[in-house]
Each structure stands twice: as structure tokens, then as C-alpha cells.
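User: C-alpha cells in, sequence out, please.
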């Protein structure tokens, strides 16, 4: 018994997340406790993938995995505790964030994603629910500064490094243009997600909304951004331009995480 168990932080379909305290150090952690049988083999695969990726990363804005305990029936992940919960809940209670508050969040997020992409890791499931808030301060202008952590790497993939020619190739005469230019745009899906998140932080609603999935996909493929909500009157043109760069339909012309970090709106 190294940890004393405290309150329940969340409940998944096959496990719980509990706040715990390390008995020797007094430090608080979050333990994700998963029942192997309930989870089933496919969910356990996702969990193992998450563990293997978290063991390879170390970044201020990515959730830290402290240790893993395994028993025949269960798996326990000891993770950094994020006292303030999901970013989504904070957004809902506030309605929307100011431009400065949003800038601070997006800068942290972009820095985490640039770090992952440099390691050839694509998150693939970035959304408000997967961004946790470790702590929050209020500055002299009464604006929130949130310390965010990206979590939930169950769907993340690590791309095999190395040149495309060694891995895919065969004969170049049959190759599609996007393969030849060796621009693997798969990681650009994360950038699109950052755009959706930024839009939601600024105005409180998603950029593309439809009651039917088919209609939604159509809107997403068109990618027409609307800034009609009156909230947008208080948002700078520079911020809107960043949104247009993040939500470019063609991944080849979408801004990269590094370019986002260098963008004047962020810096």
C-alpha cells in the first residue's frame, strides 16, 4: 500500500480514475484503474499504446505518467493529477474565453503538438475533453491563465521514421504526387483539431454544426468559416487569420505546429 485512495475523479466504461496520495511523499496523483476483462482486448491494446507513447514523451503540457502497476486482473496508471479538470467544463461555465486567455492556451497546446510531431507522434484525437487543466491563475487584468495538459493518447500513432522511398516505394513511376513529395500530411489532422478548439474557446461553439452527420461532413469539407456571432467583434483580425490557417481544408496548405508557434498572434 503505497497510496491512500481519495475521491473519484472520473468514470470510464471499463475503469475509474481516482485521486490518490503517496503515503511517503504526501504528493497527490491520479490513478487510472482498468479492469482487463471489462475492457476487452481491443481497449487494452489502446491502453498499452497510450502507455508506450507516454513513456516516450516529456513535455510541460503533456500529461505525465509516473508509473504503471499490472496485476492479472487490472492495470493501474499513476498519472499527474490535474486538479481543475477538463478544459471543456471551464469553457462551458465561462461561455467563452477572451483572446488573451485563448492565446495562452493555444500557445501551450501548439508547443505540445509541435513536440509530438517532431517525435513523429500524431495524437489523432485532440478535443476539449482531452485537455486537462492542472491549475489556473488570474492575472492583474482579471484574465485566466490556465496550465493545460494534453491527455488520452489511446488513438495516437507513432509513424515509422525514415525516408518514404525506403519504406513505401517500389517503382517511382507508379507513385502518387503526395507520396513523391514525401509530405506525409497525416499529422496535419492535429492542426485542424487545434483550429476547432481555438474557435470554440473564442466563441463557445464549434465552427461547423449540423444535425445530420452527413451534412456536418459536407460543411467540414467545404471549410467555410463564419465569424457572424457578435463575440467575434471583440476578436482581432490576426486571431481570425490564425483560424483560417489552422482550418485550411487542404492539409498541404494548412499551417504546421512550428509555424503556429512562430505566428505573430502567438508570439
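Assistant: Sequence out:
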Amino acid at each position: 500500500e503505497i497510496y491512500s485512495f481519495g475521491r473519484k475523479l472520473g468514470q470510464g466504461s471499463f475503469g475509474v480514475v481516482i485521486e490518490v496520495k503517496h503515503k511517503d511523499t504526501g504528493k497527490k496523483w491520479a490513478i487510472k484503474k482498468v479492469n482487463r476483462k471489462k475492457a476487452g482486448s481491443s481497449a487494452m491494446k489502446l491502453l498499452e499504446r497510450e502507455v508506450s507513447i507516454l513513456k516516450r514523451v516529456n513535455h510541460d503540457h503533456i500529461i505525465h505518467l509516473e508509473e504503471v502497476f499490472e496485476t492479472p486482473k487490472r492495470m493501474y496508471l499513476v498519472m499527474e493529477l490535474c486538479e481543475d479538470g477538463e478544459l471543456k467544463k471551464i469553457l462551458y461555465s465561462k461561455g467563452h474565453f477572451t483572446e488573451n486567455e485563448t492565446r495562452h492556451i493555444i500557445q501551450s497546446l501548439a508547443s505540445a503538438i509541435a513536440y509530438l510531431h517532431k517525435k513523429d507522434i500524431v495524437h489523432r484525437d485532440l478535443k476539449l475533453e482531452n485537455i486537462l487543466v492542472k491549475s489556473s491563475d488570474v492575472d492583474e487584468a482579471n484574465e485566466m491563465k490556465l496550465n493545460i495538459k494534453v491527455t488520452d493518447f489511446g488513438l495516437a500513432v507513432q509513424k515509422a521514421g525514415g525516408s518514404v522511398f525506403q519504406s513505401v516505394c517500389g517503382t517511382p513511376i507508379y507513385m502518387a504526387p503526395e507520396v513523391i513529395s514525401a509530405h506525409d500530411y497525416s499529422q496535419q489532422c492535429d492542426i485542424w483539431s487545434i483550429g476547432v478548439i481555438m474557435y470554440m474557446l473564442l466563441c463557445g461553439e464549434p465552427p461547423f454544426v449540423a444535425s445530420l452527420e452527413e451534412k456536418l461532413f459536407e460543411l467540414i469539407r467545404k471549410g467555410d468559416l463564419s465569424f457572424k456571432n457578435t463575440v467575434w467583434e471583440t476578436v482581432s483580425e490576426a486571431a481570425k487569420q490564425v483560424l483560417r490557417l489552422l482550418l485550411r481544408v487542404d492539409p498541404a496548405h494548412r499551417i504546421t505546429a512550428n509555424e503556429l508557434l512562430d505566428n505573430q498572434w502567438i508570439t
